[in-house]
Design a protein that fits this description.
Structural class: alpha/beta
CATH class of the largest domain: Alpha Beta
Shape: globular
Distance between the termini: 45 Å
Strand order of the largest sheet: 3-2-4-5-7-6-12
Largest sheet: 7 strands, mixed
Order of helices and strands: EHEHEHEHEHEHEHEHHEEHEEHEHEH
CATH superfamily of the largest domain: Thiamin diphosphate (ThDP)-binding fold, Pyr/PP domains
CATH architecture of the largest domain: 3-Layer(aba) Sandwich
Radius of gyration: 21 Å
Helix content: 25-40%
């Protein structure tokens, strides 16, 4: 292990190399371009390839193709670019293609303020594509978490055969922090499950044991169909209700039933808490400071920072916040993730703290809003 001072974006790039990244496709867009630039210089040293395509649509489709050629693959973008990728992400979901998208949010909507920050895309990151399923979304708040959660994103992607979104923002992207960097032997790196049957018996979408099918790649000697239509276990188009039900429920369950394993959080004063400030991403830094201020004023406040936003671990969240009287959801948008939590935490009061700021909302604003409710 070694320590370096890195920005959140460079931490993501370094961690992707540690995770075994071999193919990066992208199109420059603020505030993610330095991920692209860094990998263009460093990834070829490890036998990887970095290609700039004509747009984000071509980039995400190239990443899908590279994944089916047995390469761990990734792209990075921001709001406008992610919007262009959504159709292909739906393709990746139904074809169960492992890949990672580093999504660094900026101020929106539209092109907004490209160089400043916000958390306006939290729902788009998992619900934006068509099909009604959920993409796992991990959310760092520091460069160290950007590094650690990038490795986790690749591992979840490979284990569950799914796209995974690493949801950062412009503040984290360009803030320096001390990062503990690990070599491959010092960190768990998950590889996708390969078929154990002979090619004549292989069915590309048959989970055999569990919910995730072993994945043969192009060139492995197996017959592989990458079918975007509703398909059976062989990958053959099957426009029948029973096939649609079977496929949809399996795709849903492999993510939903892994929520407990994917869920990650950190907390402050949770063991002596009546009022919880829930947050994620860069806004969590303000929420933590606000929590300390509130406790100095005699409020039994705690801070809970979510590092996993989706899938929502409903049972775990209810248990985690058991005994808390009020939950304040602090975020740099109009109250988007609050809409998720109020449906989960139905037995207690959940309050939205929507703060709009081009950088990190000041802790004092959080304190003022919470104090008014108390």
């Amino acid at each position: 292990m070694r320590y370096e001072y890195l920005t959140g974006n460079i931490a993501i790039a370094e961690a992707s190399i540690t995770s075994g990244l071999r193919f990066y496709a992208g199109y420059p867009i603020t505030p993610t371009s330095d991920i692209f630039e860094y990998l263009a210089r460093e990834l070829p040293k490890y036998g990887g390839h970095v290609i700039q395509f004509e747009d984000e649509i071509a980039s995400i489709n190239a990443v899908i193709g590279a994944s089916w050629a047995c390469s761990k693959a990734m792209t990075a973008t921001s709001g406008p670019g992610f919007s262009l990728m959504l159709e292909a992400l739906s393709l990746a979901v139904i074809t169960e293609t492992p890949l990672v998208v580093a999504y660094v949010m900026r101020t929106g909507p539209s092109t907004g303020v490209p160089t400043r920050s916000g958390q306006y895309d939290v729902l788009q990151s998992t619900y934006g594509f068509h099909g009604g399923l959920v993409i796992p979304v991990l959310a760092p708040s520091t460069p160290q978490e950007a590094y650690d959660l990038t490795i986790k994103a690749f591992n979840v992607s490979e284990k569950l055969r799914t796209p995974v979104v690493l949801l950062s923002d412009a503040v984290i992207a360009h803030t320096y922090g001390k990062v503990a960097m690990r070599e491959k032997g010092e960190v768990e790196v998950v590889e996708r499950s390969k078929p154990s049957v002979p090619p004549s018996e292989y069915r590309p979408y048959d989970p055999v044991d569990g919910l995730v099918p072993p994945m043969a790649c192009f060139g492995d000697g197996y017959g592989v169909l990458v079918e975007s239509l509703t398909h059976d276990e062989r990958g053959y188009y099957s426009p029948r209700t029973d096939s649609q039900r079977k496929l949809m429920w399996r795709l849903y369950r492999k993510i939903a039933e892994s929520a407990g394993q994917i869920f990650e959080y950190s907390s402050l004063y949770l063991d002596s808490c009546d009022v919880a400030l829930v947050s994620y991403g860069s806004t969590a830094l303000s929420a933590q400071v606000a929590t300390k201020v509130l406790r100095e004023r005699g409020v039994r406040a705690c801070s809970v920072k979510f590092k996993t936003l989706f899938p929502v671990y409903e049972e775990g969240l209810a248990k985690l916040l058991e005994g808390v009287e009020k939950v304040f959801v602090v975020e740099n948008n109009t109250g988007l993730y609050y809409r998720e939590l109020r449906g989960v935490l139905k037995d207690r009061e959940v309050v939205s703290v929507p703060l709009i700021d081009l950088d990190v909302p000041p802790p004092q604003e959080v304190v003022e809003v919470v104090s008014k409710w108390l």
